[in-house]
Amino acid sequence: MLVQETIQGKLLAALTPSHLEVINESHMHSVPANSETHFKVVVVADAFATLRKVARQQRVYQILAEELAGPVHALAMHTYSPDEWAARAGAVPASPDCLGGSKKEQGGN
């Protein structure tokens, strides 16, 4: 199973979101083609209505602990309650451009 599918399945099962996007942004970074290392998730769930932003992110970290300990190098999270999502009209911040950072780009081996 692809890492992206695993992430999506785990978040769907644990949070029953009303909206979920799992976007593989690996191509925007210094990684080999077809990598699954950098992701952006947008999760809208009733469970987030009573949680602060940090608690929401901690919950996502718990759900995806195996992936974050293994193949996933970076995870951008955008977590909203249904009311917050409606107020945003579905707008999500764009991910920043990769600034490099590989050893090769920094003059290392």
Q: Would you give an account of this structure?
A:
The chain is an alpha+beta fold and 109 residues long. It is 33% helix and 18% strand. The protein is built from four helices and three strands, in the order H-E-E-H-H-E-H. It has helices at 3-15, 53-63, 65-69, 82-88, and strands at residues 19-24, 38-44, 74-80. The chain has a three-stranded mixed β-sheet. The protein starts with a helix and ends in a 21-residue tail after the last helix. The model has no long low-confidence stretch (mean pLDDT 86).
Strand order of the largest sheet: 1-2-3
Rg computed from alpha carbons, rounded to a whole number of angstroms: 15 Å
Please outline the major beta sheet.
3 strands, mixed
What is the oligomeric state here?
A: single chain
Mean pLDDT: 86
Number of helices: 4
Distance between the termini: 32 Å
Spans where pLDDT lies below 50 across 5 or more residues: none
Number of strands: 3
Helix content: 25-40%
β-sheet strand percentage: 15-25%
Envelope shape: globular
- Helix-strand category: alpha+beta
Topology as H/E string?
HEEHHEH
